[in-house]
Fold each of these.
Amino acid sequence: MKDRFGRTIDYLRVSVTDRCSLRCLYCMPPEGAEMTAHGEILSFEEILRVCAAAAELGVRKFKVTGGEPLVRRGIVPFVRALKRVAGVGNVTLTTNGVTLGDFLDELLDAGVDAVNVSLDTLNEAVFRRVTRSDNFEKALRSVYAARNTLLALKLNCVPVRGINEDDIVPLAELARERGTAVRFIELMPLGLGAKLSPVPREEIFDRLQRAFGVLTPSEERLGNGPAEYYSVAGFTGKIGFISALSHNFCGRCNRLRLTGTGLLKPCLSSDAGVDIKAVLRKGGDEAAVKRAVRAAVMLKPARHDFSANNGKHETKNMFRIGG
Ligand code: SAM
Ligand code: SF4
């Protein structure tokens, strides 16, 4: 499917819940958030209908996200069912890792193609500060367990000024072995993220070059996203950067987002979207669901505008969107 600017849209991020086991300081208030009533969240059957419509329109790659996707009951059968939808190719999942260890075998058996784990630190005290939880050991055990499987694994870190700058080099060290990609994601000014400061990509780059020597740009594309990758001598995994604000990649945007409450979001920076839950629950048939997906694609702007002052600026925290 092409959008109005000729970009091919073949990737859908699917948020299955806004509940989460952590309270990351850039994403979720410390006291937690008011949880959306179950009835307002799309059922797995409804999500599968949206995915099937998207697949018919040419979407091939699906990312299961949240909140924390592994806290939703029935997540593994959902992944299995999604893999079986006609036209669906790649199904990946992003998780905070806390219970990933418990699900690894089942997820592999269900056919998941890759897993991203969000991990901002290898230091227990910093983990507690970032996530406001005591789950450090559990998350870390999951990461090491996942590294020991055949699963393609990427680690995502959001460097935040004054919080985890000193974790950048130790985390990157995990790319040395087992082909694990380690990516640094620029903090986005959404919700709580707007109150914190990102660590500039150039500073991250300098820290890494001082520790490991030259980072060489890599042509390789790993997965479906906008990360720019670098190789490091002696490392089997790549180092990636996803810097939506400072190094805009809207020209290569290939995605739509489906929130847990059934909004199809054309762009992360705007709260505009197509209410596909309304279409589903008013008895819309497959053609109507496809029209809604197409409409969301046609609403995609040429580029994001996080400074937009048009009343459309996205103010939700990321746990309600899916990242
Ligand atoms: N709970 C899962 C996890 O943490 O991977 C999936 C959902 S989480 C919202 C998806 C991604 O969004 C995580 O990698 C997280 O670090 C990132 N994220 C959340 N808030 C962010 C923000 N303000 N700026 C940049 N990334 C953010
Ligand atoms: Fe939960 Fe992921 Fe948000 Fe952290 S980033 S609070 S793990 S949804």
Amino acid sequence: MRQRWVIGNWKMHGRRQQNAQLIHEIISVPLWPGLCVAVAPPAIYLQQVHELLIGSGVVLAAQMVSEYEQGAHTGQCAAGMLADMGVQLVLAGHSECRHAGQTDAQVALQVKRVLEQGMSVVLCVGETLEQHERGETLDVVRKQLEVIAGLGAEVANRLLLAYEPVWAIGTGRVASPGHAQWVHQALRSTLAKSLGEPWAMTPILYGGSVKADNAAELLSQLDVDGVLVGGASLKASEFLSLCRLAAQAR
Ligand code: PGA
């Protein structure tokens, strides 16, 4: 059985008091068997959220990481620093970072740094609206997947993928369950073909305008192992509904 996940990406939202309230509500509910739950607050609140999560079983995630190990890189966080702060999971290649200029070469280094530090990584891939309309979806995501070529089987259990079509992120336009399944299945077979059998177990999450009222059908798809959630992760009741749906799906 592949591991199932719900990851909340808070993006640039939250203040100390709101964070405390949100975490308090999330951890007041017992964990669901077989489901991993993670939250990714802004870097400045990692320490606060780490302390709030102690003993809860909810995983602390970071939204981004530098491709450098240390040095004169103003404003950035190294993977070693994130690990030092109790982070267990890091997003890499989110489309909002790619849009700000991040390249596949940088994403490849970020993935490497995160894995070197013993953390897990969520590699985000997804096509823009123009690429989608030109029918280039699979070419684009397979190309983005190349950043993990050459990874050893010993890290296979610390990689997650998230298919996040750019046209679905924050737009309210969610991918159809059939489209998501089609892309997830292609990603899974590309992984197994290029890297080998252990990678067939890689959890592949869908992200982009996921909400409690559209998640059930997405989560029932054979190759959708969970969801990466932005807007709907900021409200505890909505986020908890998504966790319940993910735990019950399939
Ligand atoms: P959204 O964001 O759920 O607000 O569309 C998803 C993401 O960017 O991870």
